[in-house]
Amino acid sequence: MGICDQRTVIITGAGGGLGRAYALALAAESARVVVNDIRQEAAQAVVDEITRLGGKAVANADDITTLDGARRIVAQAIEQFGEVHALVNNAGNLRDRMFVNLSEEDWDEVVRVHLRGHFCLANTLARHWRDKAKAGETVDARLINTSSGAGLQGSIAQSNYATAKAGICALTLVQAAELGRYGITSNAIAPAARTSMTEGAMPDVVKKPADGSFDFWDPANVAPLVVWLASPLSRHVSGRVFEASGGKISIADGWRTGPVQDKGARWLPEELGPVVDALIARGVAPQKVYGT
After folding, report:
1. Which domain holds residue 101?
2. Per-residue pLDDT, 289
3. Sheet order of strands, 141-146 included
4. What family name appears in the similarity comment (predicted)?
5. Which of these is catalytic: 155, 165, 231, 238?
6. Cα 11 from Cα 84, distance rounded (Å)
7. 148 is catalytic
8. Has 155 been annotated as catalytic?
9. What's phi and psi for 284, nearest 5 deg?
């Protein structure tokens, strides 16, 4: 028995990359996995891989960006496995452009997949779990969202993606604050690994080492954190954003109030230049932009 025995986990975008690694790792820890991907064949290939290894999984290709699609995913999971205990919101896309070159479609498509995609399934499941809790049943449920270093630090040519990923961090905080009373935790991860997206953006950086040394960018390196977050062992942790890559795990602090200058009265506009300069000098240096 693994640490996710008898738990059902839905993973979006699980036909490859990080999602596939999560699915395999969760199944290895006895979870029953719903492998969602818009590419039906890719989802089925991961399911076949899991079942060959003795695990339990089912493929799903419904649209995560509509409530109807989300309801079908949840209904299939419950019909197949009886209940859902965790959701890993992993699916994503890229339409990288410098900000002045972004089209309305570039913006909307990335925000739709990341932010609306995170909303629909989580909202559907949160309602389901809330109703169970109000009916007196014990709920021990998990929302695991996916942000990015781009969402934490900004990223050149990724204003649409970075904005969506930053929004996911804020969504995670609100979910944690609102849903804890129902037995639901919400955390986010900002993973760095070799995926189709990173191979397209920075192929030389994420390539597998030819000498057989530790493969820092292997998606499987991030999977143990996701497994732990989906398990009963993590019930005391909520509202956190984890960064994970290679063998490294950290918790992002997020925005914090820095030094304060209080005049005790309303400032005059002409007074503020030296004040702002002094606050910047006393504060923390800005973080490096992600990927530069």
Report:
1. 8-251
2. 65
3. 56-60, 32-36, 8-11, 86-88, 141-146, 184-192, 241-245, 248-251
4. Belongs to the short-chain dehydrogenases/reductases (SDR) family.
5. 165
6. 11
7. yes
8. no
9. -85, 140
- Show the tokens assigned to 67: 């409530």
Give Cα separations from 135 to 128, 130, 176, 190 (angstroms). Answer: 11, 9, 21, 35
276 belongs to a structural domain: no
Give 252-283 pLDDT, tens digit per residue.
988 888 899 999 999 999 999 999 999 999 97
The full length of the chain comes to 292
Number of domains into which the chain is organized: 1
Among residues 22, 155, 159, 161, which one is catalytic?
A: 161
One-letter amino acid at 12 equals T
Helix ranges restricted to H, the chain: 17-28, 40-52, 67-81, 104-111, 117-134, 149-153, 159-179, 196-201, 203-206, 223-230, 272-282
pLDDT at 97 over 80: yes
Task: Check 148, 155, 234, 238 and give the catalytic one.
Answer: 148
Q: What is the 3-state secondary structure (H, E, C) of 133-196?
A: HHCCCCCCEEEEEECCHHHHHCECCEHHHHHHHHHHHHHHHHHHHHHHHHCEEEEEEEEECCCH
132 is catalytic: no
Is residue 262 in some structural domain? no
Which of 121, 135, 116 lies closest to 183, judged by CA? 135
> Average pLDDT of the chain?
94
The residue type of 189 is I
Question: What is the reported pTM?
Answer: 0.93
Phi, psi dihedral angles at 32 (to 5 degrees):
-95, 125
Cα–Cα dist 204/220, whole Å: 19
Among 256, 95, 251, 66, residue whose Cα is nearest residue 164: 95
CATH number of the domain within which 225 lies:
3.40.50.720
